[in-house]
């Protein structure tokens, strides 16, 4: 198959590039390769879990978002800029005439913590993971959220609203990357006023349980019971394809 522009990745970046190309060159053939069906707005996911954002406002059909694109659901497995082609996991080879755009985005960063592979340990990055977390919340009495950014604090609020005892484990301080110490202190106090127990200056060193998570162990030796653990510890860029192109 040939395309004027090949976009690899169907997230926010891929969508932005697709719409820009179609606005400037509506006659160009654009192929979008993405691994999953559907488009997910990630920022509202904590509010979806809280029951405050409807599913139709978070997860949309690809045909609506990428109107006019040739959509292929696959992974790019090899690439050659010299021959201007990309081979897909389906075996299909896409040749691009004008440009190939790598918009593979990022993936959640899961620290190397013992027990992180136990059941009911999650990261939040997709509509599917949001639904899995929502299902786990139905039977959870207590939860631990690891991280101090926006997703971690928004999830804390969502869990409290669901009636779950919520612990927020923050290595440094709440919203450190966005605000100064004074505001962080105010925000921490507000979280605590709403029922979130904040363990500031702590880190999770172990997730323990037989099959499912039962507790976490902090770096000061203390233990916190948990039926559910979320690692909201940031993201890392997906660079594999860029490396195959010699760009990273």
Automatic annotation (TrEMBL):
<dbReference type="InterPro" id="IPR023753">
    <property type="entry name" value="FAD/NAD-binding_dom"/>
</dbReference>
<keyword id="KW-0274">FAD</keyword>
<feature type="domain" description="FAD/NAD(P)-binding">
    <location>
        <begin position="4"/>
        <end position="246"/>
    </location>
</feature>
<dbReference type="GO" id="GO:0016491">
    <property type="term" value="F:oxidoreductase activity"/>
</dbReference>
<keyword id="KW-0285">Flavoprotein</keyword>
<dbReference type="Pfam" id="PF07992">
    <property type="entry name" value="Pyr_redox_2"/>
</dbReference>
<dbReference type="InterPro" id="IPR050260">
    <property type="entry name" value="FAD-bd_OxRdtase"/>
</dbReference>
<dbReference type="InterPro" id="IPR036188">
    <property type="entry name" value="FAD/NAD-bd_sf"/>
</dbReference>
<protein>
    <recommendedName>
        <fullName>FAD/NAD(P)-binding domain-containing protein</fullName>
    </recommendedName>
</protein>
